[in-house]
Amino acid sequence: MRAERLKGHLDALLLAVLAGGPRHGYGVIEALRTGSGGRFDLPKGTIYPALHRLEQAGLVRGTWSDDTGRQRRTYELTAAGKRQLNDERSSWREFSTAVVALLEGKPCPAT
Amino acid sequence: MPGDLITRYLDELAARLPRTGRAALVAEIAGGLEDAVEHHRSTGLSEVDSQRAAIEEFGAPEAIADEYAPVAATAQAHRYGLAFMTTGPLIGGLWVTAIALTAELPEFTRIVGGLLLALVLVAAPCAVFSVVATSGPLRVRIRSVVTVLSVTAYTAIIVDLTAIAVLTTLLATTTTIAVIPAVIAGVASATRLVMATRGALALRGTRAALV
């Protein structure tokens, strides 16, 4: 899947990946790839700036950890990040229901 | 030599990143590459091929730098915005004190003062906006924030230069001026002038990098 298509959703996907617990940058990348059945395979290096953007926005917290003698940065969701993820989930549900209704000609359940 | 490919990649990346946060990001990506190389090695690839594969996966340094540019710009706008928000009232207070302690001021200073005050009334909200916009998730384009903050920076330059020029004129021509408070205010303005000039140049560079 093309990176541009994913771009607008990347932040929400990163939050979703981190909802399962704290991860290293590389762990986030792997989770994104495996969680999407290999479809979301972005240039891995661009995930790091994206994580920094989320950290700057107060949605994730990054801390340097030194497990097994290696310096790695671990990310976890903040309370604001959890709230944001919930908002993203409900707005995505609404959006995707409407898109499916139109693209596949199914009636849209009235809300 | 193993390690050369990775080192060259990281050097190229560092050269493209703005100074703010560069070291930390490069260190983090270096760690990620290590993980990736190890993963490929464990699948049976040679050291050099593992490095090549890891670099391939991580993508072009330009792509990483492009993704990072708004992050660095946000941090920069926040920092300069706060700097203007704190120095502004301080410098204003010093000038007001100097004026209050001066017995008599020539008429033209009142007009200049009024004009400078009008400029401050534009610049101050711009600084506040920049700080608020860069706290928490961005809801406006960072390029717009940088533009707005540039208004503050250029205005601060004009205000400080004018204030210092007026002070120099008064010191040369008037005897009624309260010299010590006025000089303190002048020095404060000169210091801020340096900061504002640096800020204006930095923000111009950032704006150009954000396209």
UniProtKB/TrEMBL annotation, chain A:
Coiled-coil regions listed in the entry: none
InterPro entries, per the entry: Metal_resp_DNA-bind_regulator, Tscrpt_reg_PadR_N, WH-like_DNA-bd_sf, WH_DNA-bd_sf
Domain spans labelled Transcription regulator PadR N-terminal: 14-86
Listed SUPFAM superfamilies: Winged helix' DNA-binding domain (SSF46785)
Pfam families per UniProt: PadR (PF03551)
Domain of life: Bacteria
Protein name: PadR family transcriptional regulator
Organism encoding this protein: Lentzea tibetensis
Automatic annotation (TrEMBL), chain B:
Regions crossing the membrane: 82-105, 111-133, 145-171, 177-195
Keyword terms: Membrane, Transmembrane, Transmembrane helix
Pfam families hit by this protein: HAAS
Protein name: Uncharacterized protein
Organism: Lentzea tibetensis
Lineage: Bacteria, Bacillati, Actinomycetota, Actinomycetes, Pseudonocardiales
